[in-house]
């Protein structure tokens, strides 16, 4: 891993920002790195807080995991930027803790405990990493419509998680209390106001703004627990292996299926950043390295007690708007994130955040994931074949999990993977349908109408320039589409 390219005492050429390896002074690079960190900071930590609450972890344990989340996000980003062997893409991709795993991990920690979840993450991460090294042999199984319905199902699976946080957190003594509902509403409305009034790329900070306003309101309402700040050290390193991994086959299979889903998202993000940032198609080696980085870094994240990591679409959206692809500039943000991991005050502040405030901000994020999936379905096209794949996978994958007793005749392993995990069901049905359905299905009026509308949409987008080519492909895509629209309006 090399960091050559930081210039010292030379005149700064602004064009270097738009080159992968352009020479740039460190002081010039820092603002662009910080911009990327602000765009993903909250989304990187929120999954940890949600799963830790579901597992009933102590404040000290949760604070340590938050520190680990910041450290692993920085490490993963640096590996993506500056590959190690065949691990990493070499593209301007920012990594962070993935929302995709939240639902399945909440179920695992509630049933088996946090140690089993960590064991599943380590094994699943290694498996995805190995698969990533051989991505060219299987990635064509993941068509655009498969990726679209998977992202849509992820959004639906997270809605109850956001609603539970909005009420104060599952199992909270004051769940659904007027104070919790008020705090959740304040945070949500603050996000919406900022989203409506902010201009251009500042919309990226709407969730952070909502958290700040909600936190201040919680202080005035006496809802903030400051115990995490007691006996706080100035510096402290994240713990290595804070939870001894335990291995359960059902948990491993469940998490591994979601790792395949995460690989689908990574394919989309890597392709998108190459297109909108570099103006070219992604290379096979870059895709393979990106998926491998996803997997192996997730396994390392498990060793820190954290959740799996993935590429962040909001940062791909930032690249689409600014065209800043300089790897050294983005690396400064990764280093800053890693430094924050050694400051316990940062984790203590997030640990003291009332869950209702977090729910008010994240429930909008989860809704945007669903909309992002709908947009991807539209981009894939409304051919009769795509309609069948989407309808079949969503109806079976989501519908059957609403009546989990339908799996009663299946072995325990199958029930544990699919009965309460709609994402796994949607993914499996979509992949099978994509393989077995004939490529050419008889055209009817609905298909003709859909294809005509798709042609109109494509024509409109072709006139909007290169930014319109970007489509968020990750469950962590927060407000990206709105941000792109605003950037066009501002220009």
Automatic annotation (TrEMBL):
PANTHER family: PURINE PERMEASE C1399.01C-RELATED. Keywords: Membrane, Transmembrane, Transmembrane helix, Transport. Its main location: membrane. It comes from the Bacteria. It is a multi-pass membrane protein. This is Xanthine permease. Residues 452-491 are annotated as: Disordered.
